[in-house]
Amino acid sequence: MNASTPVAPSSARATQSVRAGYALFILTLINLVNYLDRYIIAVALPEIQRDFGINDAQSGLLGTVFIIVFMLASPLGGFLGDRIPRRLLVAGGVILWSLATGASGLAASFTALLLARAVIGIGEAGYGAVAPSIISDLYPREQRTRMLSYFYIAIPVGSAMGYGLGGWLTQTYSWHAAFFAGGVPGLLLGTMAFFMPEPQRGAMDGPDAAVKLPFMEGLKGLGRNMAFWATTAGYTLMTFSIGGLAFWMPTYLVRERHLWLEHPGRVGLVFGAITAVAGLTGTVAGGWLGDKMDRKRAGGGLWLSGIGLLLAAPCMYLAVNLQDTTLTFAAIGVAQFLIFLNSGPINAAIVNCVPPAFRAFAMGLNVLCIHMLGDAISPTLIGQIADMASLHTAIAINAVPVLLGGLALLLGAKLFREAVPREQVG
């Protein structure tokens, strides 16, 4: 066969596509299990409180300790992800958090359970910071937003599965069984992750992409990268708002709207179903539209995210001011759709506006910021506003960070072209 025939290149592209698809599939399943494991404890909590005799403040520590360890360990996970084979970091992190999830079911005391939750945070940090950088090296820029959106579909689906599976196992068997079941899939997926392809850093960013970068030089460059910081600011404001909304909205619907007072668990079920549907459809739509907008203009996907948040803000305000229950749930659904629209575009913008050699650390630093200044503090602050005024007022005010986040993302879109190498933006 003549060496000039296109068969060999075509075969190589097909092989690359299969390898990339396998890695994306494994990473997405891991992300699904990630959120499944996170939310099992939410539905198992009443039984845990009964068995250990702990109060609400102590119970809250189970969530607080996890998020603090996770956000503090994420930059370290990103630092390692820029320097060692990322598949090893992913596999090790998944296996560690899965073992810790299983150990949660073995916990014989509140202290042991608290320690297990902290270890879960360490394992998730090793995975969460590097997975988007792997995907960015498997797919070209014109496909990244869509592929990252597939990855982030796991957030609403995994969360809903955590509520559903955790609730069923806790009710049917025990909260111990729920944690045991949650740990098994991660052990299998972590083993499979050892066999994922390890793409070269910057493989899809052209021959001039920086694949090795001294840490301090990269840190200085990131400090001057205004597109990264504007995007992170918008993402943080969005995370602050939706973290508070997820925590307080079911309570608001029961306490102030008096919905299903005899069966308050039904509110959580309905709210969870709306979140799952809006999250799934919004994430898919955001990936498709984000790629389309990025092809039209540099930072187009980020511009889409900004517009999405600007539209979500009035929907969030209406959700607590509409008297009709059906319209209230409709407003909640639309707001969540518009918020989840941003999952792919925001994360694609972050990996696209930093050098390939510094992407994992940039993602880890982003994780630190969005949680430390976002959903780690918003439930408490919203609760304080509710104590001073009312829960209605607190949730209505919660629309303001979404509005400000939209403006920050529009600024980030404007700055994006300056941060991306010229050959990438054409």
Automatic annotation (TrEMBL):
Bilayer topology term: Multi-pass membrane protein
Look up the domain of life of the source. Bacteria
User: Where would you find this protein in the cell?
Assistant: Membrane
Major localization listed first in the record, in broad terms: membrane
Keywords noted in UniProt: Membrane, Transmembrane, Transmembrane helix, Transport
Query: Pfam families attached here?
Result: MFS_1
Query: Major facilitator superfamily (MFS) profile domain spans which residues?
Result: 23-417
- What one GO molecular function would you report for this record? transmembrane transporter activity
Keyword Cytoplasm in annotation: no
GO cellular component annotations, sorted alphabetically? membrane
- Annotated membrane-spanning segments are 20-41, 61-81, 88-108, 114-135, 147-169, 175-195, 226-249, 269-289, 301-320, 326-344, 394-413
- What's the protein name? MFS transporter
Q: Organism, per UniProt?
A: Corallococcus exercitus
